[in-house]
Amino acid sequence: MRPTDLCKRHKVSIDGQPVKPSRDVSVGQVVIVRKEGLSWQYRVLRCIDQRVGAQLVKNCCEDITPKEEKDKLALIKGGWVPRRAKGLGYRCLVFEGKQDLERRLVQRMRGYRVPNAKFIVLRDQDASDCKVIKKMLVQKCCEARHPDAVVRIACYELESWYLADLAAVERGLGLSNLVKHQKERQFSSPDIYPSPSQTLKKIAPSYQKVSGSRAIGLFLDPSNTCSSSFEAFITGLKKLCNG
Question: What's the distance, CA 152 to chain centroid?
């Protein structure tokens, strides 16, 4: 879709307000573009006064979209969730980071008017207490009048799920000699290690947040039990699909 069309459909905003294609921007402003189920965020680095090619535009802005949102979207867009929920429609309600999730979850769940819709809320643990996070999100789901929503926390990051399934990493990224390490503690129990993304990058230097998640997600084994948070997510997803 062309930028002009995105503006006409109110998919582009600055300071929370939809903008027209002719809107001027200032250095430092953050432009939010909603597409592919994700709110892409770009900070303006410098302004130009004439139309230029896409390659030059990249030098004028910085992509500051939260990495955890890109990870989750890539996992879903890779086709993994649709294969687990055949015959069921789904939609991703993407937030602009964890703070935005906590601030707007109730509003967006209440505003979703599809009859009999069910929700699964997924968030990285990062450095927070997973029990505290889950309790808070469950309370928000109840406030939104969806007490049956499933809340799951990826411990510590989504990459923990990939370390738990090195066979999927091999197949997705076209690598070899990784599966032999699966019995090592950092891969057999990856949820207890706080920096899984760094570990993954060490063993698979070619891994990139979005493309890597999309590729690995195609091969994740839903019966894998190395990651407790992944196992809990699968259980919750099955509950929604079969409920």
Answer: 13
**pLDDT tens per residue, range 144-177:** 999 999 999 988 888 999 999 999 999 999 999 9
Does the global pTM surpass 0.70? no
Rounded Cα gap, residues 69 and 48, in angstroms: 29
Structural contact between residues 7 and 19, judged by C-beta atoms closer than 8 angstroms: yes
Distances (CA, A) of 151 to 101, 232, 237: 13, 10, 10
The phi and psi torsions of 239 (rounded to 5 degrees) equal: -60, -45
Are the C-beta atoms of 158 and 145 separated by less than 8 Å?
A: no
What SS3 string covers the chain? CCHHHHHHCCCEEECCEECCCCCCCCCCCEEEEEECCEEEEEEECCCCCCCCCHHHHHHHEEECCCHHHHHHHHHHHCCHHHHHCCCCCCCCCCCCCHHHHHHHHHHHHHHCCCCCCCCEEEEECCCCCHHHHHHHHHHHHHHCCCCCCEEEEECCCCHHHHHCCHHHHHHHHCCCCCHHHCCCHHHHCHHHCCCHHHHHHHHCCCCCHHHHHHHHHCCCCCCCCCCHHHHHHHHHHHHHHHC
Phi first, then psi: give them for residue 62, nearest 5 degrees.
-125, 130
Q: How far is CA 72 from CA 1, 23, 110, in A?
A: 22, 31, 22
